[in-house]
């Protein structure tokens, strides 16, 4: 053990690359070593003999851990342990995916996962002393990752400030943006959008670790950068295909929510995304649009909760502006006011029936089903609605106008 310790302590002077470091760590522990980045791409790996498993072979050939292996590690509860803990984790073999015994540890800079170190232990048993030494070895790996992080990001505060300037729209000059983009190695070409994950639980260090890991290990899309703002996790994402991205965006947000809520037993989590833009100057618009979706999700959970993309809001995109105009003009919809007065006098629910009718896209049978009444009863109510209010339900302008005014009312009540 003392000899191993001495070898480890001498690494500082001898090692100049991660490839060398992987070989040295492998020599110390007598087993193959793989070093990965936060996306599970292989950064370096040690030499090995013939006694290795199929997962290591596939990982080295593809330069990335196979997705089926990552999925299995999540299902077995291994990944949450690696993300949450600063200590090595013993991983028993998983025969169904061809994974032999492992010991692994995460390499992190504060709450940000930089990568992982994996020891293919096979039949070799790591003692408690070995685990302590393995953690010290991982600290040397961290130094290389930190150098790389500093080389790519320069100053972390400046990098974060640049992202905030994009979110706020403080930078509009293309040349100034290009200069900062180059300085902080933030690639802003192509189609971009803002995604916000809103947590209702108080943000903890554990939640930050999981959120950053999930953002950095995505395969559905590329997260350019991210940060926490109170209970909002804000991500700038890059989309390869601007014409077929909706399914990708919904899948990304749904998977993010599912994984982090299952692992940390969190309460309600909301997600929203703004429109896709190419110019960096438009990032501020996507950010404001994502925030607008979140605001409407909170005000109208039954109606808006399933909607995560700003473009899917439909008329709700403009409802706040219309509500402000209605308030300024002190406008009251005459059809709605007549129905409300009639309901108050006679104890009926014609206005609620009309609102549900609009929600069901003017479908009599679906509306009747939602209201638990017979379709004939629904047709009778529609007849009374026409007689009492004077609305022409075949006139799209009258229908749209009344529907929008009912939405405004629901938002004011929220």
Task: Outline the structure in words.
By secondary structure, this protein is of the alpha+beta class. It contains 19 helices and 9 strands. It has helices at 2-9, 11-14, 18-29, 54-62, 67-75, 78-84, 128-153, 156-168, 174-183, 205-216, 246-264, 283-299, 301-304, 319-329, 334-346, 350-359, 364-371, 375-389, 396-413, and strands spanning 33-37, 42-45, 89-91, 102-109, 112-120, 191-199, 222-229, 232-239, 269-273. Strands 2-1-5-4-3 form a 5-stranded antiparallel sheet, sandwiched between helices. β4 (102-109) and β5 (112-120) form a beta hairpin. α16 (350-359) crosses α17 and α16 (350-359) packs across α18 (375-389). The longest helix is centred in the middle third of the chain and has 26 residues, at 128-153. The N and C termini lie far apart (66 Å).
Distance between the termini: 66 Å
What string gives the helices and strands in order? Answer: HHHEEHHHEEEHHHEHEEHEHHHHHHHH
Residue share in β-strands: 5-15%
Mean pLDDT: 85
Count all strands and give the number.
9
Shape: elongated
Number of helices: 19
Which structural class do you get from the secondary structure elements? alpha+beta
Please tell me how large the radius of gyration is: 28 Å
């Amino acid at each position: 053990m003392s000899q191993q310790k001495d070898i480890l302590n001498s690494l500082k002077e001898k090692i100049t690359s991660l490839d060398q470091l992987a070989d040295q760590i492998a020599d110390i522990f007598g087993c193959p070593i793989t070093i990965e980045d936060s996306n599970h791409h292989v950064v370096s790996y040690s030499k090995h003999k013939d006694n290795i498993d199929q997962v290591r072979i596939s990982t080295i050939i593809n330069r990335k851990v196979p997705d089926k292996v990552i999925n299995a590690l999540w299902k077995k509860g291994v990944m949450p342990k690696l993300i949450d803990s600063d200590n090595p984790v013993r991983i028993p073999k998983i025969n169904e995916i061809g994974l032999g015994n492992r010991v692994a540890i995460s390499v992190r800079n504060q709450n940000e996962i930089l990568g992982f170190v994996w020891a293919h232990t096979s039949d070799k048993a790591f003692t408690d002393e070995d685990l302590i030494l393995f953690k010290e070895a991982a600290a040397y790996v961290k130094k290389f990752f930190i150098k790389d992080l500093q080389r790519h990001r320069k100053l972390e505060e400046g990098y974060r400030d640049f992202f905030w300037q994009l979110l706020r729209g403080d930078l509009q000059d293309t040349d100034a943006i290009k200069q900062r983009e180059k300085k902080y190695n933030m690639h802003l070409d192509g189609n971009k959008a803002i995604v916000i994950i809103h947590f209702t639980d108080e943000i903890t260090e554990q939640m930050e670790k999981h959120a950053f890991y999930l953002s950095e290990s995505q395969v559905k899309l590329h997260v350019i950068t991210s940060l926490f703002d109170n209970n909002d996790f804000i991500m700038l994402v890059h989309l390869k295909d601007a014409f077929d991205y909706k399914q990708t965006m919904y899948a990304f947000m749904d998977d993010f929510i599912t994984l982090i809520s299952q692992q940390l037993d969190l309460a309600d989590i909301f997600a929203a995304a703004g429109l896709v833009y190419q110019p960096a100057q438009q990032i501020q618009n996507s950010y404001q649009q994502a925030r607008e979706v979140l605001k409407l999700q909170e005000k109208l959970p039954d109606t808006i909760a399933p909607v995560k993309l700003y473009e899917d809001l439909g008329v709700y995109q403009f409802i706040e502006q219309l509500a402000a105009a209605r308030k300024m003009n002190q406008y009251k919809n005459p059809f709605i006011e007549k129905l409300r007065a009639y309901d108050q006098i006679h104890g009926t629910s014609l206005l609620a029936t009309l609102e549900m009718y609009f929600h069901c896209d003017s479908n009599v049978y679906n509306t009747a089903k939602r209201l638990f009444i017979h379709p004939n009863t629904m047709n009778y109510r529609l007849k009374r609605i026409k007689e009492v209010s004077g609305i022409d339900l075949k006139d799209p302008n009258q229908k749209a106008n009344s529907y929008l005014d009912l939405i405004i009312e629901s938002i004011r009540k929220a």
